[in-house]
Amino acid sequence: MGKYIGIRLGHALVILAIVVVLVFIIARIIPGDAIMAAMAGSVDLHDPSVVERVRHQYGLDQSIPVQFVVWLAAFLRGDWGTSIGTGQKVLDMFVQRLPVTLELFLGANLWAIAIGIPAGILGAVKRNSAADVAVTAGAIIGVSIPAFWEAILLIYLFAVLLPIFPPSGYVPFSENPLLNLRAMVLPTFVLGTHAGGLIARYVRSSLLEVLGQDYVRTARAKGFSEAAVVARHALKPGMIPVVTVFGLFWGGLLAGAFLVEVVFAIPGLGRMSVDAIFQKDYAVMQAMLIVVSLNVLLVNLLVDILYGYLDPRVRVRG
Amino acid sequence: MDHDHDLDRREFTVGFLTASFAALALRPTVADAATESPSPAVLDQPWAVWDKNAKPVRGGIFRLTREQYIGKMNPNHWPVLDWVSMGYFHERLMMNDGRYNSTVLWLAEKLSWESPQEVIMTLREGVTFHDGSPFNAKSVKYQIDWIRDPASKTWDANWLAQLDTVEVVDDRTLRWKFKAPWAGFNGVMANVPGYVMSAKALQDDVDKYDSQPQGTGPYVLEEASPGNYLKLKRNPNWWFAKASGNPDMPYFDGILVTIIPDPAVRLANLRAGQLDALVLEKSQYAVAKTDPELNVYRFPGNHLAALRFNNTKSVFQDIRLRKAVSHAIDRQALIAGTQFGLARLASCMYPDDHWCHNPNLKPVTYDPDLSKKLLSEAGYGGGLTVKGYFSNTTMSQTIAEAVKGMLAQVGIDWQVELLAPAAATSRIQKMDYDLAQGGWIFIYDPDLMPTGLYYPDGGFNFGRSKNDAAIALIEAGRKEIDREKRRAIYWQLEEVLYNSYEDAWLWWEETATAFRKQVQGWNQEGFLKYQDAWFWSHPLWFKDGKA
Q: For B112-163, how does the pLDDT look when each residue is reduced to its tens digit (9 = 90+)?
């Protein structure tokens, strides 16, 4: 198992190094003057020297190789640079916003699991029934509905027409737990329904395959109830493909978080990233792309390890 | 009976004397009030009129929203992305009047032009910064010198390039000396360098100032959550409250500015009662107007929308083609169809409420037949293909498509690309366009916009425009300190640019703001007449003091 983990970790580090270089180059070769664009939206630019001064302050008047070396050295020292868009240190922004996005993710995952797994089990156990059709339809709607549209609709329904939840905004849990939870219901639900739809579909199809296996028939023949057969014999092996897929749609969850954070005005990493892309905020873009890549690599590494645990044959082959 | 009458008289006398002694005992309080009496220097101003029938009530937190977080709170350090919020804790030496002319004395009480190159400025008395340090000539001199110091890394240092020295004459008086006649001095004092900052705070920790400003404004920063909100609390020692004779100003206990990027969600918050005021998107105006919970007001805006020609390195060197484009555009239709009616037809650069607007110039007429004739005369009767770019926002995309369609009707194929702002800058700098999105935001001092657009080293020129007559007039306008003569120069400048069809000016902006009905004190007439001066001198309040 140790060798297996070591090999996977080595792969991840190589990929990360490639990503770091690619991210830097891509951010720089996209045409456009980020400083000029940012300033043009806020002050009158009758004097071009103001742009030059700011460009110099952010080190953007250096050549690209020099910028790369300076940036990499600083990044490895823990200085992730200064945001063109906010003037804050990027690491400070990240530390501030990470818990917010993690809370959103946690909530979304809870919704996804709470909706997806029971729905998937129901669909598999009551195959071809009205319940199965409802689960399938619900899963397709959950996956297909655009997050942006769903968010606006829910805001108008549950914040304007029926003022149950706040329309947007974020209050830290430590400041006011009740307000925090109320504010996070709608955004976590929007993010969770997409993943929940996917999970339902995968759980259903995976479970159906397992329920058709000989050992499951044997379990039924021994007189176990259907609930016991599903819970004790079918569910664990039925989850293997779901765990694999979970790593894939973790990335999708991240992309969804970007939109959800913008619509609900949640000051998380997703919104920070969207702003950075529009403003060509190099330091933030670079940091976020590296963090996201690392995140995806780590999650897939964990999935590989978990897969190895769930199915020993993978460890031997891998 | 006489005895009773006498007793009554004694009682009266005792009572009278008691009251008199009480009045004498209270005299120090009365005397104190007299030393804090309103300032004639404020009360003499035309905008210093408050409705005596209105009964402002103290209390409540005023909830606003902005699309972006303010950024840095030192106005001279980049980025600063929310100048309205900046104005709650920082005030300027001068302000703009209802004609966008910087004639309003605010923290500067008096200005005296000794010569075209020397100004004596007297500062208001009784003003303190939020950190308790005094606002005086020394603090202003320190600030100006700090802005100009390269080590301060200010972005606006060059705005003071014309300044030679600023000297302290006495505690309240400064002498400003310029390298050359500087007509734009008032405008700069009403702009970014004119935001006064505590010299003590700058000296103590200049980096900290970026997130903990110390101004003189009606509100003090209480808490900032970057990207999320700004919380401000009432400044009980605001100088203007005493100087204007309105000691209860400002009336709100605080202001909460929440960052909400999406316009639909901002409106949802207003309608859900989570906000008290909102600057509306144009598409939201019609809906908000019919909401019984809201008061909605329209205002002229000092932004210009236009199309920019590449006049030196494209087919648009030919004035006939510039005319053809300009006359092919139905500006009324654009305003109605893309701006929801919220805009004013533009004749040239300066909006019709700007003090330098030339009223003799009329908006270019919509005349597609003339456009076709001009194209034919210029040798493009068979069609003309030009390239360009526009912003990729939803609104801009709509405008671009509408303009493209209008140009197509006269035989001009405008191959327009929709670009993010950063990508668009590359095209501007390389002059890689024939016809593109133009215009200007924040039109205040009349020099800034024409310098940026038409002066050789202007911020948005890059060589695309070279009109010698215009350049000469721009230079003349910078030096002329007589207001009427200066206005005449800019009238002439507009005429030169207009006659050469230097750009295709489309409209001057209008905006709309919605207030919840709880919000009191707004006077549309006062605001339209005096703009900034009215806005900052007439704080609003909640009915019953509650949101």
A: 999 999 999 999 999 999 999 999 999 999 999 999 999 999 999 999 999 9
Q: Which of A34, A87, A155 sits opposite B265 (nearest CB)?
A: A155
The residues facing B438 across adjacent strands are: B306
Whether residue A155 lies within 8 A of chain B, CB to CB, comes out as yes
**Residue A38 — very low, low, confident or very high, per pLDDT cuts 50/70/90?**
confident
Residues A37, B422: C-beta atoms closer than 8 Å: yes
Distance CA B213, CA B236 (A): 17
Mutate to test the interface with A, among B78, B82, B96, B256 (most CBs of A within 10 A): B78
A63: left (phi over 0), alpha (psi -120 to 50) or beta: beta
Spatial distance between the Cα atoms of B410 and B416, rounded to a whole number of angstroms: 16
Whole-structure pTM value: 0.87
Residue A128, number of CB atoms within 10 A of its CB: 8
Q: Give the pLDDT band of residue A314 (cuts 50, 70, 90).
A: low
Helix H, strand E, coil C: the string for A130-166 is HHHHHHHHHHHHHHHCCHHHHHHHHHHHHHHHCCCCC
CA distance B477 to chain A (A): 15
Distances (CA, A) of A260 to A108, A171, A267: 11, 16, 11
CB contacts < 8 A (A, B): 170
Residues of B with Cβ-Cβ distance to A161 under 8 angstroms: none
Query: How far is B22 from B280, CA to CA, in rounded Å?
Result: 56
